[in-house]
Amino acid sequence: MIQCLKQKAKERPDKRRVNKVNEPQPPHLEQPARLPPIRVEESSFSQDMQWLLERGVQFADVAFFAGDSGKELGWAHAAVLCAVSPYFRQLLLGPKSRERPQSRCICRERDGGPHSLLSTWDGGIIDDMPRPDGHTVGRLSRLVVKDPLLCLCLWETLMFLYRGSVLPAHRAVLVARCDVMAAMFSGKYAEARSRVVPIHGVSSDTFLSFLEYLYTDTCCPASVLQAMAVLVCAEMYQVKRLQHLCEVCVCAYLQSMPSRELASTGISVIRLLRRAKCHNAEQLYVWLLHFIANNYLIFSHKADFLELSEEERDHVERLRWPSRGYLQELSEYQQRRRKLRKSRCTVM
């Protein structure tokens, strides 16, 4: 009896193998196509600051002179000096630099002409000013301030106005970092002669993020919609690298969403595609087409999928995942499985 049971146990795997051979094999599902990379321009922050040092004399507001000979040593920008050096912050703004800064330069107009950004101003003689640590830096003899407004407030050389909100900035930094603003503030436009510049077309938060990039060379939008808003602002002022960084942020946010969240989110990827095309974000436009194709089963059931143009829909259909061929093979496989199960039930 025991030997008979052992013999039957040995025969069972063979029967299973026979059954598996007769069963239909599921179709092979290929991996989705890789999403195209977003290429970001190299940072020009160092080159921009170097340009500001070498050629930004028009917007310089501080000059250094030798104490003995009176020879001009070079020009600089108070905003940059105060930002990186506690010594210059104390020298130019006074000890209470956290309050509204008052210049310690005793300024007078040299030629008696009207105040303008290009006027030359002589400051009082400041010799052997001590650092906070007690050391001296030699003889800083004179400060020449070209913009009289800097005599009152060295920080707020320019203000952007948006619906009552005021965003201070510095002409020198804006000119060095943005070609469009360099043309605005250097030419015969009204902005070149005005201290208050109104903002149109973008919100104050978006423009503040734009200014943050110009000053820090970084961009960290908090959401997809904010990244798209900053992208529009970057396209408006033709700052390509910021536009590319915003494209990377949008892609990263969308890729981090799980499928269930992507299906239920209120963010319309199709409308993001429209805005990317409208504002010349070509890399993001191509990436979103591939992203829609890779998540075809999610986006094809959304109402705004019909907003795609015929050319875009053909492109998505060609790249869709899973493909039509795979879905057809899967349907045939499931039908064969059902027939096989019915036949087994009939035999039993």
Describe the structure.
By secondary structure, the chain is mainly α. The chain has three domains: 45-151, no CATH class; 156-256, Potassium Channel Kv1.1, Chain A (2-Layer Sandwich), CATH 3.30.710.10; 262-348, no CATH class. The chain is 49% helix and 7% strand. The protein contains 15 helices and seven strands. A three-stranded mixed sheet has the order 6-5-7. Strands 1-2 form a two-stranded antiparallel ribbon. It has a two-stranded antiparallel sheet with strand order 3-4. Helix 3 (78-84) packs across helix 4, helix 7 packs across helix 8 (224-236) and helix 11 (269-278) runs antiparallel to helix 12 (282-294). The radius of gyration is 34 Å and the shape is elongated. Mean pLDDT is 76; it is low at 98-142 and 144-156.
H-E string? HHEEHHEEEEHHEHHHHHHHHH
Mean pLDDT across residues? 76
| Coarse shape | elongated
Q: Distance N terminus to C terminus?
A: 26 Å
Strand proportion, as a percent range, falls in: 5-15%
Q: How many domains comprise the coordinates? A: 3
Number of helices: 15
What's the β-strand tally?
7
SS content category: mainly alpha
What is shown here, in short?
With 348 residues, the chain is mostly helical. It has helices at 2-22, 45-55, 78-84, 86-93, 171-177, 179-186, 204-216, 224-236, 240-255, 259-264, 269-278, 282-294, 296-299, 310-319, 324-347, and strands at residues 62-65, 72-76, 108-109, 121-122, 158-162, 165-169, 196-198.
